[in-house]
Design brief:
Length: 94
Amino acid sequence: MSEETPAETARTYESATARLEEIIHRLDSGEAQLRETLDLCAEAKELIEFCAGELAAVDQGLKELKLEDLAGSLNQPVAQPEAEAPPADPDVPF
């Protein structure tokens, strides 16, 4: 079992995407040495996996909310339309 650092336990989707932008900028600059490039790519992979998990959790939460809304609407009484009189037959006098 791996231990998480305090920074990892407080990680948010927003902080992860901001760090990914920093990593991309550093890699695009061409200034990173070989070992740093490897380390940045490994960190980026972890951040991408974290973000994918966060997006999946939010997606599931949205699906559950829609199901709850649907279930709630099914529990409400349905208004019955008022019965309409049949159309008048033009051949039958009043």
